[in-house]
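The freezer alarm interrupted the setup, so I double-checked each line after restarting. Inputs confirmed:
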Amino acid sequence: MSQQEILAELAQIVNEIAGVPAGDVTLDKSFVDDLDVDSLSMVEIATAAEDKFGVRIPDEDLKDLKTVGDAVSFIEKAGVAA
Amino acid sequence: MRAVAPLRQSRIAGLGEHRPAGRLTNDDLAARGLDTTDEWIRTRTGIVSRHVAASDETVVSMGIDAAAKALAASGLTGADVDLVILATCTMRNAIPGGAARVATGIGARGAGAFDVNAACGGFCYALSVASDAVRTGNAQRVVVVGSEKLTDWLDWSDRGTCILFGDGAAAAVVTTADEPGIGPVAWGSDGEAYASVGVPEGDWAVRMDGPAVFRWATTQLAPVARRACELAGVDLADIRAFVPHQANARIIDALVRALRLPEHVAVARDIATTGNTSAASVPLALSALAGSGAVEPGGLTLLLAFGAGLTYAGQVVRIP
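Predicted 3D structure, all chains:
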């Protein structure tokens, strides 16, 4: 899956869970500061992303995923490893 | 030894509750100097206010009041009771437990009495034990109480925990029945994650890793609810009401989504004005739902309790 495809799927998830317009979910955006996603929605996004991409996003890694770009690269790497 | 007699059926005959008069709103918490806002707490927890017990209200005294009301609702008195089970995790002292004093307080002289500590999961564990005691004939009428004074165990400067919890008690009277009124329990635990919520060793207040507990609750518990229905031989579509532990409105929302509960199912949302009352939460929410008239008496109701330990338990009951 390409970076663009991961981003598109992730944007869909963020939209469904946090109500953020999918078009606003771009690589440079911070989940908390720019998209107003709170910690509990981040957990729901992570579990939905786990199902969608077939990866594991442990709590300790989730805390480091500050931007959409962080999440996309994490999923990219975890997907390659898996 | 004589063989055990054939199993009987059990049911919840009546409910009673004790909500302390003291009430603390989100704005009250912010006014106390806690770095939070009403909006922050509402959007993340669904809580607007919680009850706080007075200094002379204890786990035992609240439990006695709730139990006495449950007996009255069942048309019984303390003299009819032969077993009292108190689900709690907030007694000030570990020894003795509080159940014997609850039994004495309701006039159940000489009744069997013991405490159950499965934290927020406690009520469904205690209800299962009570049901089995009645079904086997070990007891005729059992009072099951969930009573908690969480505010004794809160650090009012820890905004990740003190906003969540409240005090209160509720009780159910379990008796024999002609038809099944309490289904088999689906229960379990995960001791590996024990540190995610509780009072850490050497500490005095409840601490919690919120996101970790949230993830557990929103991903691991829907199968437990489904299993409780399977054990009872009940289809999820036949459930009239769902009473999950009132820990966080967003956990309740996630469970409702994961279970794909139809619109007509009444979902207990006592949390808004009660907060998380641990072992008292499921019976308080059940009592509120029964009192609201949203579910007709006898309606199939799915209970699901879960919390520190980690522990979880659920069963299908008929609402009295």
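Quick read of the result. DSSP finds four helices and no strands in chain A.
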